[in-house]
Amino acid sequence: MKKCDHTSVGMLVWQNDNLLLIERRNPPFGFAPPAGHVDQDSSFEKAALRELEEEVGLEVKSLKMIIEGRKENKCRREDGNWHHFKIYECITDGCIKRSLRETKAVGWYSRERLAELSKRTEKYQSGEINEDDWEKSPGIEPVRYEWFKDLNVI
User: Fold this and answer.
1) DSSP state of 140
2) Residue 31 and residue 25: Cα distance in Å, rounded?
3) Rounded to an integer, what distance in angstroms lies between the CA atom of residue 6 and that of residue 85?
4) CA distances in angstroms from 7 to 17, 42, 68, 69, 82, listed in the order given
5) Beta 7-15 vs 82-93: how paired, if at all?
6) Contact 65, 86 (CB under 8 A)
7) Is 97 helix (H, G, I), strand (E, B) or coil?
8) DSSP at 128
9) Is beta strand 18-24 parallel, antiparallel or unpaired with respect to 31-32?
10) What class has domain 7-110?
11) 10 Å Cβ neighbour count for 116?
12) What is the pTM of this model?
């Protein structure tokens, strides 16, 4: 198992007030903007470019960091229980080509749909939705839900 580097990027891509989200194929399950570990990249910015290309096939034209900080969250890597995040707003080019290995789906989500997915996350966090049902039909990935609240996206 790969050891966690405790660094992560997330990219917000907006189109006509709709946010690009993936449905994660691998744990932690949920809907999230394209994101990932910094790993071998020399900077958070290079990781952002790589992850956006890997997960949704888009090229970054403009990258602007909008928030950063540490959040407790579990990933599937060894010792992966917290991450220092940098979240970027991106302007992109190209056509979406989702990673079949990393995503179940990719789409543009309105603020109304984000609110619906957020309600599902709240139910999951309160124990009203079990792990199996969450994996089958998730809401916003919990750590992304926290970031979305911090950024007034939801």
Assistant:
1) B
2) 10
3) 8
4) 28, 12, 11, 10, 8
5) parallel
6) yes
7) coil
8) S
9) antiparallel
10) alpha beta
11) 12
12) 0.95
Tens-place pLDDT, residues 103-131: 999 999 999 999 999 999 999 999 999 99
CB-CB contact of 86 with 47 (8 Å)? no
> CA 6, CA 119: separation in Å to the nearest integer?
28
Selection from 31, 51, 44, 32 nearest residue 5 by Cα: 44
Contacts of 73 (CB under 8 A, 6+ apart): 28, 81, 82, 83, 142, 143
75 is written with which tokens? 């990933």
CA distance 90 to 71: 22
* Euclidean distance between CA atoms 7 and 46, whole angstroms: 13
One-letter amino acid for residue 154 of the chain: I
Q: Compute CA 128 distance to the chain's CA centroid, rounded to the nearest angstrom.
A: 23
Q: What is the pLDDT of residues 58-89, one digit of tens each?
A: 999 999 999 999 999 888 899 999 999 999 99
The Cα 7–Cα 15 span in angstroms is 27
Q: What length does the chain have?
A: 154
